Each structure stands twice: as C-alpha cells, then as structure tokens.
Amino acid sequence: MPPGETGAGGRWGWDSSYPAPAKLNLYLRVVGRRSDGYHLLQTVFRFLGRADQLHFSPRDDAAIRLATPLPGVPPESDLSVRAARLLQAASGCSRGVDIHIEKHLPLGGGLGGGSSDAATVLLALNHLWQLGMPRQRLQEIGLTLGADVPVFVFGHNAFAEGVGEALQAVELPPRWYVVVEPPVQVPTAIIFAAPELRRDSPPIAAGDWRPDGIGNDLEAVACARFPEVAECLRQLAAAAAPAAARMTGSGSCVFAECASAEEAAAALRRLPPGLRAWTSAGAAAHPLHELAR
C-alpha cells in the first residue's frame, strides 16, 4: 500500500508512515510590514502529492530524539524536534519518541519541507500520544515555529493572510505540476531583508482571488541574488510553454502548472538534461487532516 496508508478500515498507528507534503505558493504578495518587522503577506497555498515520510517509535523515557539528523542542522534546532518538545510542554505529556524522517523535499527550496515535517509531528504525536488537542491549538503552537507551519496543520489548500495565521480554505481545480530544484538554497531571511523587495502590493479580498491570479513579489529579488533561480525559471518557461513558470515561496524551487499528468510529463522531458526536476499532482487536502478536529 502507498506510504502513510493504514489499510481499509484501519487506523493510524505507531507502525504507520506519516506524510509531510510539499506546498506551492500559487500567489504571494507582500502587502505591508508590522512594527515588529514581520512582513504581512497574502498567499495561496497548494499541497502536492510529493512528501517527506515520517516514522515514530515510542520511548520508555521522555526524551525526544531525531534518529535522522540533517547534515549541518543540529538536532536541537531541527523544527521536528522543537515541535515535539513544544507539544510535550503544552500538554504536560511525559512520553518520549524517536523521529525518523525520509527526506524527499529539498532544504531552502520554498516547498515548506521543514515546516511540513514539524506540522506532521504535531498532528501525528497529538494522535499517537492521545492528547486530543484541538486543531486550532496545534496551529497556534505551529505558528511559534514558523509562518508556514499552521497551514499544514489546517489541512486545506488555503488563502492565507497576516504572517500566515489567518487561513481560509479554497477549492482548487485538479492540476499537475512540474517542479525544478535549482542547485542552490535560498535563505528566506536574505530575501525578506532585501531593500529592493516590494512591500506595498495592494491587498485583495480572499473571494476575489482566481486560480489564474498569479505572481510572487519575492521572485525578482531571488532571481537577482541567485542567478541559478533565474536560469531554472527560463528553462522551465521554455519547456512548459504556454504555461507560466513561477517561483514558490522565497525560492529556490520553480514550478509550472499543467492540466494533466501527460502534459506535465511532456514538459519534464523537454527540460535540459542534468536538472533536478519532477512532477506531482496537486492534492485536495492534507493526507493527515483527519487526525485533528
């Protein structure tokens, strides 16, 4: 059976594989800035079928251990470990866990990999530890970890405002996507600190956004500072035409939306050899949405 499924009539358990899906920003505008320096955004999140896979093993003590640390990332600062410890503290739970992560999403790619992993930890451990914490509380915990975490807990494709905490579910048509991973990581902080970043895009009402409403205020800054992103955008635009090529989040990954799996596969074949690229269907909802209320 596919990773994460528990079988007909089955339940999510300790032996399950828990997916942490990628996201795309179909639309991203910077509409202002708070007095504390945080940027105010409007964006549309879309989940993808491609995902990291997380596995959990119970412990006899209260320790939280990441069994698969990432190179260059101390386990103590990993979002997954921090999420588990915040959940422990918020619930008073004294149980421990070993976390195993199969990484399929790139670091610094704008696909939400670390944030999605953290959200999956919150959803899965809330279930496995039988805490019964409501979804809204999990979203609040997630927001302390990063602006992208709440939408993964929310569990629906969404129009997001503020710093990512104000979410409204949106229905998106079935689509396939070609995603290219440029050979560079783009630190989010560098993009948002850029003096040339536009911070006054006019906001829109959530109900006024349409699936053909595209644009990403961060894209021009990322392309100027990381030529690899600009080059991958150019190559994807040529391969996927007439579909538009866009950047997701603060980069580095770029994507094109296609009407079918066949169209996406054809665009993938037209890309130059040597590029790291793949296709994925857009998802209607987060695969773990049922684990919280």
Secondary-structure topology with pairs:
Layout: E1 18-33, E2 39-59, E3 64-66, H1 79-91, E4 96-102, H2 113-128, H3 135-143, H4 149-154, E5 158-162, E6 166-169, E7 176-181, H5 188-193, E8 215-216, H6 219-225, H7 227-240, E9 245-247, E10 254-258, H8 261-270, E11 276-281
Parallel strand pairs: 1-8, 3-4
Antiparallel strand pairs: 1-2, 2-4, 2-5, 5-6, 7-10, 7-11, 9-10
Helix pairs in contact: 1-2, 2-3, 6-7, 7-8
If you had to describe this structure to a student in words, what would you say it looks like?
This protein has 293 residues and is of the alpha+beta class. 28% of the residues lie in helices and 27% in strands. The chain contains eight helices and eleven strands. Strands 1, 2, 3, 4, 5, 6 and 8 form a seven-stranded mixed β-sheet that branches. A four-stranded antiparallel β-sheet has the order 9-10-7-11. Helix 1 (79-91) links the parallel strand 3 and strand 4 (96-102). Helix 2 (113-128) packs antiparallel against helix 3 (135-143). It is globular, with a radius of gyration of 19 Å. The two termini are 26 Å apart. The relative contact order is 0.18. Mean pLDDT is 94; it is low at 1-9.
